[in-house]
# Entry
Amino acid sequence: MKVPDEFEGGSPSTVAAAALLLSSFFFSSLGFQIRFFFRRV
# Structure
């Protein structure tokens, strides 16, 4: 996985914050999909 050019000169804290935000959004959407699936079943 290649790192975007915006993160090349960025500080590690910024990259970590972006990764944390992305992962939290991914897990929240995943949990929502699981709840929706079980609601239909």
In short: Residues 12-40 form the longest helix (29 residues). The two ends are 36 Å apart (CA to CA). The chain has a mean pLDDT of 81.
